[in-house]
Write a structure and sequence with these properties.
single chain; 299 residues; 15-stranded mixed beta sheet; 14-stranded parallel beta sheet
Length: 299
């Protein structure tokens, strides 16, 4: 086909099917545009890049190397996709975002802002990566998960569900964050650690080893949870039925349990009211765990 407007096609570039090139777009090198793909605006496609299906590349976006854009994917703004990266299905990459190396973005995922996805990272589902966030290595972000700010996800880490990672938080190793969990501030989750449910980890907190933080637990400050430690709500940490109508407020008697812990005794930040006694072998830990080191194996 002949380009429309001021668009240019040169080199060994190949355009066929119902593909459309218009505006000030530029296609060159060994690039191939086919199917119902559309390239327009000031977009540039070069190298061995391939655009096909109903994909659209526009604005000042650049696709090059061996990158492939297909399906209903859309690349726009100043976004750059290169290397062997692949963007497909209904995924969208825009703003100043960069997707490269062997990274894959698909489904309804969105990468925008100054975010960078590279290595063998995979972003899919309805996941959103934005801000200055970076996802790389073999990391996977999926579902409705959101990674933004200056957060970094790498290694074999997995983030899914409605989890949110933001700020300067770092998730790496084989760590898994899911459910409605939230990791932010300068918090770090690594190793085989798992944070799930409505748990929140923030501040300078560190979760690693095989540690597990879940349900409504909150870990922050300089707290460290490691080894096989587990932080979760205790079944006895609720307002007892015999307390009566004016006996206690639920939020004032929410306690936490870590099984088989070592290290300094945690500080209880909420009052222990009458009728609440820990079970044998369990340690009381506050709903807000901070400045504490919890370690060793779960029983």
């Amino acid at each position: 086909m002949e380009p429309l407007g001021d668009a240019e096609i040169y080199g060994d570039a190949e355009i066929h099917g119902d593909a459309e090139i218009h505006g000030d777009a530029e296609v060159h090198g060994d690039a191939e545009i086919h199917g119902d793909a559309e390239v327009h605006g000031d977009a540039e496609i070069h190298g061995d890049a391939e655009i096909h299906g109903d994909a659209e590349v526009h604005g000042d976006a650049e696709v090059h190397g061996d990158a492939e854009i297909h399906g209903d994917a859309e690349i726009h703004g100043d976004a750059e996709v290169h290397g062997d990266a692949e963007v497909h299905v209904d995924a969208e990459v825009h703003g100043d975002a960069e997707v490269h190396v062997d990274a894959e973005v698909h489904g309804d995922a969105e990468v925008h802002g100054d975010a960078e996805v590279h290595g063998d990272a995979e972003i899919h589902g309805d996941a959103e990566i934005h801000g200055d966030a970076e996802v790389h290595g073999d990391a996977e972000v999926r579902g409705d998960a959101e990674v933004h700010g200056d957060a970094e996800i790498r290694g074999d880490a997995e983030v899914h569900g409605d989890a949110e990672i933001r700020g300067d938080a770092e998730v790496h190793g084989d760590a898994e964050i899911h459910g409605d969990a939230e990791i932010h501030g300068d918090a770090e989750v690594r190793g085989d650690a798992e944070v799930r449910g409505d748990a929140e980890v923030h501040g300078d907190a560190e979760i690693h080893g095989d540690a597990e933080v879940h349900v409504d637990a909150e870990v922050h400050g300089d707290a460290e949870v490691r080894g096989d430690a587990e932080v979760h709500p205790s079944p006895w940490g609720r307002c007892p039925s015999h307390a009566g109508a004016g006996g206690c407020l639920e939020e004032a008697v929410t306690h936490w349990v870590t099984r088989g812990t070592e290290g300094p005794a945690p500080r209880l930040e909420q009052p222990v009211l009458g009728g609440l006694q820990p079970k044998e072998g369990e340690s009381q830990v506050p709903a807000v765990l901070r400045g504490t080191h919890i370690a060793a194996g779960a029983v």
